[in-house]
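Q: Convert this sequence to structure tokens.
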Amino acid sequence: MRRSGLSRHIVVSMSLMVTGVIVMTILSSWLLYAVLMEFFPASAEAPDGWLPNGPELAWMVGVIVTGLALAVAASFRLAHRILSPLNSLVDSVRALAGGDLGARATADADTPGEVAALVDDFNAMAHRLQHMESERMMWHAAIAHELRTPVTILRGRLQGLAEGVFQPDESQFRSLMAQVEGLSRLIEDLRVLSLADNARLDVRRARTDVVAEVHSVMTLVDPQFRAAGFVLELETSREEHAAHCDPTRLRQALLALLENARRYASPGRVRIAVHDVQDHVQVAIEDEGPGIDPALHAEIFHPFMRADGSRSRQGGGSGLGLAVVKAIADAHGGRVYCSPGRSGGSRFIIELPRQ
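A:
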């Protein structure tokens, strides 16, 4: 329901008050002289001077008092309609400043439009602040949880090496390097998401051959995938698909999607398809299962979001990789989404603009 404006409320209230006073003055004047002519004919005759007689003085005083009463009543009513939501807003602002992020202002159905809009904007701001505080607490807890595991492993390994429990051989150093690389990826993912949240993610766009970038990423990760029992396959309609994007960020997104498939999918084929879709270049990465619950497709790109099955796996990752992919796609004006695959697995699609 559209609310009327504050100016309209003031104009209507003042107009009604003035009209009421005028009507009251005319009717009371007619009634006064009708009574005087009927019952006091001598008083109704024209006076000798300009000064009013007794009945006329009484009539003027009565009109003034009644008009003032009407004005005060109309002012109180208008002030209540304006000040009641404003007082609620002031109380809510004080509560919000005191740390109560659940404080909300209220507005009645007859509140003027401008005041109601102010109340709605404040409530929306308070809701966003409460959501941001909740997200901040969740981030702190999740980051602490994700950092605790690799740091604990590093501390234990280093303490064991220092005390002679472990032999300082190549396998120990490789294990330590793996933990350090995991920490480095986590820190970089957090940096990218922080920049994206503040709309400061650096994207240096240029004409990029998406197929060539996919080839380079496949060559880089192929040994790890083969060791894990995967076979990478590329599907494309032609040798070159050009997109207007940042090649470094594109490789980062592809690595995150492929790493997600390597960690959570069952060994088998991983198909990478590159196609043109209207004004976008589409890159789809599909595995053979076990897939992701369709109910989680809309939430899978949230930071630290992982399906229950992935949480139980060893080295399950931080859950930031897909959030980084979404941040990169959004920074390019594209999008990323998940859909069921053709072989029972999951299909992640990232779309980047061609121009």
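The radius of gyration is 37 Å.
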